[in-house]
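Methods — Computational structure assignment.
A single polypeptide chain was analysed. Its primary sequence is given first, followed by the predicted tertiary structure written as structure tokens.
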Amino acid sequence: MSCSANHLRGPEGDPALNAIEGVVGAANLLTAPEDMARYLVDARGRYRGAAQCVVRPANTAEVAATVAICARAGIAIVPQGGNTGMCGGATPGSQGRSIVISLERMRGIREVDPANSTMTVDAGCPLAAVQEAASAIGKLFPLSLGSEGTCQIGGNIATNAGGTAVLRYGPMRDLVMGIEAVLPDGRIWNGLRGLRKDNTGYDLKQLLIGSEGTLGIVTGAVLKLFSQPAVSAVALVALPDVRAALSLLERIRRDFGERVTTFEIMSDSEYQLVLALRTELRSPLAGQAPWYAFIELTDAIETLDLQTALAEILGEVMEAGGITDATLAESGAQAENIWHIRHSVTEANLKAGAAVSHDTSVPVSRVPEFVAGVEDGIRTRFPDAKSYFVGHIGDGNIHAIAIFPREKFSDPLRFAELAGEVNALVDEVTVSLGGSVSAEHGIGRSNRARLQRHKDPVELEFMRQIKRVFDPAGLMNPGVLL
């Protein structure tokens, strides 16, 4: 059910919302609480907000017209993609003074250019649809996330999404060649250039990538495509400790170079939690180990036997005591089972209890120190909690999770206080190692205070100045990032 804007504020209505209704149509201006509900809560259920309405434009022109109306009326805007973010960055505040602009209707693939290895898409296009469209022309769009069926390209750009293939292909920042965006005053910036070289001044698209909707609304993008792998090798390896994972990574990168697409690690606590809560999954290894590595090699050359080559190296490392067990996927189904274990982490953690998750990056060489410091700190300072680790060790991005019994911390305010204490512990270890408190999830609402504490003051001031240049009225995603 959709409700006309004329019923929002008495018989006279609201002129701005009436104007927006004229742009997108009554069916795409949602005001009924039951219609708006799913847009007003984040994916983790940690943030719930309020809004005057939810607007669902069909194209860039409708986004621009809506934003221009809001700019004239002083109405704040919360851009929203697939609403799968981890930090509350697409959820409005509780005051109800903003509108949500959802790009879910903007799902088109505008152009595919095989010769240029690019694809131009609407920002609301789901990541999985982009992957499928690239595959249909024998190409690869390498971003891969657990939420790829529902997350959208605009949100991936706004948060500079990472994923499991960052080791080889980089984060979203490296996969975007051009951007179209609606600026806070309603103007459209058309930067949809599929150029690999464009040395004509400041690169404005890089300001919008990772800006979390605070500088404008990304409405379209030119994405970089790659050769589709013809061969692959997937392995799950049991490890005695994190340092053994680093040694194995160094050996595999030395022998396979850029063919190393993914190298993830997981603590046994996390591994067993996933298997316990996802009973349809089975461990392909015979026993348990303190740590596990998920490895994938890929190449476009069909004649390469990556499977045999990887098996030989793993055998050598095992003989030297660097790993304790290993299995290589012999079929697509076996590889899928291995990756299902990795991609089931978020769901398992949410089910397991009251979780406090972190998105930390440190220099790759210091990952063992980070794990040891956090694990020891949680054990000694939070005896009710258990620590879990999973992450992209090849780029130093490790997710540390503390999970408490849900029944002991049912009071949201008490748990928020506790989460702040856990955050302080993890940040203390992170900063001491020269790391960052956010590697790939962004800042959103949940990490604002941490950013203020740990970001260099000069950088923060430049960020605020950039925000004022783009959005002097402060109407774009207020309360997020800064």
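Note: Confidence is low (pLDDT under 50) at residues 1-12.
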